[in-house]
Structures are given as C-alpha cells and as structure tokens.
Amino acid sequence: MTDIRIEQLHVPDNLDGEGAADFLRAVEVSRQVRVGTWGNDDLAYTGEELLALCHDPYEWYVMLVARLDGQIVGRAGIAMPLDDHTELAHVTLDVLPSAEGRSLGRRLLEAAESFVRGENRRVVVVETNHSATELQSEQEGGGDERLLHPAAGPGALTLENRQARFAHNAGYQLERVEHFSSCALPFPAERAAELLESATASHGDEYAVHQWTDSCPEEWAADVARLEAEMGQPAGEGPWDVAHMREAEEISQSTGRHTLVTAAESRASGRLVGYTSISVLGKRDDVVFQDDTVMEDGHRGRELGLRMKLANLQLLARDYPNPHAIYTWNSAEDTHLIEINARMGFTVAGVTGQWRKSFDPGD
C-alpha cells in the first residue's frame, strides 16, 4: 500500500543543521520541477536563497511537503506578508512529474488553504507556468471553447493545460496572464550600438541619464517614489513614499540582492520621468532579472525606455559580467515594453498565469 503524508517541514537554522537534509530535498524537488517546465534551473531557488526566504523578517514563509512512501516528492511554499496585505497568502506548488497522478497537488493545496485560513488569510494567490513549446502544442489541439480569459488584460490559457485545469477546478479565477521572456548575455555590442543610435535619433539630448546601485541618491528619491506611486504599483498596493522605498531597499539588500537602476531626467523640467531596474541575486551570479520599467505618459513613444534599458545593461556588464541570461515578465497588455524587449532580442519563453481565490463570505 502506498503511504502518502502531508506535513509541515521544519526549517533548519542553517544548511548543515538538524533537518537540513529534508529541507534540501524539498529544494531539489522545486529545482527539478522548474527544469521540467523551462528546460533549465535558472529560475530555481538555491538552498541558501530559500533558507533566507524562510527567515525573512517581513514575510512568514512556511513549507508543507508531500511524502510518498517516506520520500519528499512535492512541496507547497506559503508566503504570508507580515506588514502590508496581511489578508494575502501566496502559494507555490511543486510536485515531481514522477509522482503525478496521485492527487498530491490537490492535497498539498487543500492543506495550504487550511493553514492560511487558520491564520486569518482570506485571499490565496497561486501561479501556473507554461512554456512556449507547451502552449503551442495545446493551442494546436484545442478550440476557443476551451480557453480561459483573465479578469484583467488580454491573453488566455487553455483548459487543455494540466496546470490551468487544476487551478480552475480548485476554484481559482484567472486574474492575469504575463509574458515571460529571456535574452542571452553578454548583450552584443553591435546590437547595442545600433539600438542606441535609433534611440538617440528619437529624442536627441532632451534627457540626462543617471545610474546607481542598491540605494537611490537622496536628490532623486522623491522623484523615484513619485514614479513608483503613480505608475509602478498595482492597484491595492497601498501608499508608496520615500520611507516605503527606503524600507524596500533595505529588505532587498538584507538578502544579498543588488539592484541596478538607470533613470532619465528631463532637462526641461529637471526631474526624473522614468527609470528601469535589474536585480542581481545574492546567492548566484549566472542569471539576472529585468524588473520595473516606469515611464511618464508624456515621454512614451520616444525610445527613452530603450535607451534606459541599454544603459542599464552596460552597467550590468561593467559590474556583474558573469550572467548568461536576463529574464523578465510583462503584463500581456503592456505591448510597448514587449515591443522594446523584442527589438533588444528577448524571446518569449512562455507565460505565467496569476490565479486568485477568496474565502471572504459572499465571494
């Protein structure tokens, strides 16, 4: 008889301590799932990264594991903010392909939901990841009647997809579809020169570029906070000001992560009108992530975003030359940034579905 157990995983103090073997096994399960989805482990947590996440003072991170005949073959990571948005819980599910077909994902999700409801969390958010190859195969075999459209923005996922069908059947609503793309590094010098020439021809010397790493210079702090508040924060994320921005910088640096920023100043107004950022992980230096690119509406369409991104890649190459790839996510409706990324040589690797389930009475 097959023995299946769902239990909370003890988080060790370090990777050499008591319970470290089970913790590292859960890390390996997560890594293998990402290799199966994307073909590499670039998006997988290292043991050091996940351990740091579990000890984050601003977010309570709990792991449940599924054991099959004593062996860990699945995990549910539960992230619960401790400062803002204390009604939320983000759940990440990983089950080894070899263990699928035994309802382990369903049992892990039900256990995670029970746990977070016991902590008075009313909203659970989960993600599903879909490679471009997988999506193409499914779209060729399914009709429009099998498509799920998100509550916000364009894009769709098909119920032919196992993950999408799982989330849908578990009572989750598809909120948003995001494009996931990558670009090989180092960035070709010839391509950079060609794109920079085009950008310069579009806006001349109307803007000055400023750069920094980790901490925004005080002279630009109010401008960056304003841009973030006006353009960069999703609805419902609450107030954003300089104090909040400084706290976010401290949290990022406490994990060993570095943030590279390139911002554009309008020479006419003397204030920042846009910025872009890249994250360098603290525990691995072979991949990096393109984060926010924010621009005031009146300055769009002049290839300023392209110029900022190129300058930030130059800063990355100078200070962090080891990454072999840069990854980014974009909302499907953000066609402007998707077009810029395509011009730079980013290729679509797939999409991520954002799903939401509310436990509020009446929802």
Structural overview:
The chain is α+β, with helices and mostly antiparallel strands and 363 residues long. It folds into two domains: 4-180 and 353-358, Aminopeptidase, CATH 3.40.630; 186-323, 3-Layer(aba) Sandwich (Aminopeptidase), CATH 3.40.630.30. It is 36% helix and 31% strand. It is built from ten helices and 14 strands. The protein has helices at 20-38, 47-54, 104-118, 132-141, 162-169, 189-203, 218-232, 242-254, 304-319, 335-344, and strands spanning 4-8, 59-68, 71-81, 88-95, 123-131, 147-148, 157-158, 173-184, 207-213, 258-266, 272-280, 287-295, 325-331, 347-358. The chain has a twelve-stranded mixed β-sheet, with helices on both faces. A two-stranded antiparallel ribbon has the order 6-7. A hairpin with a 5-residue loop joins β10 (258-266) and β11. α6 runs antiparallel to α9 (304-319). It is globular and about 70 Å long. The model has no long low-confidence stretch (mean pLDDT 91).
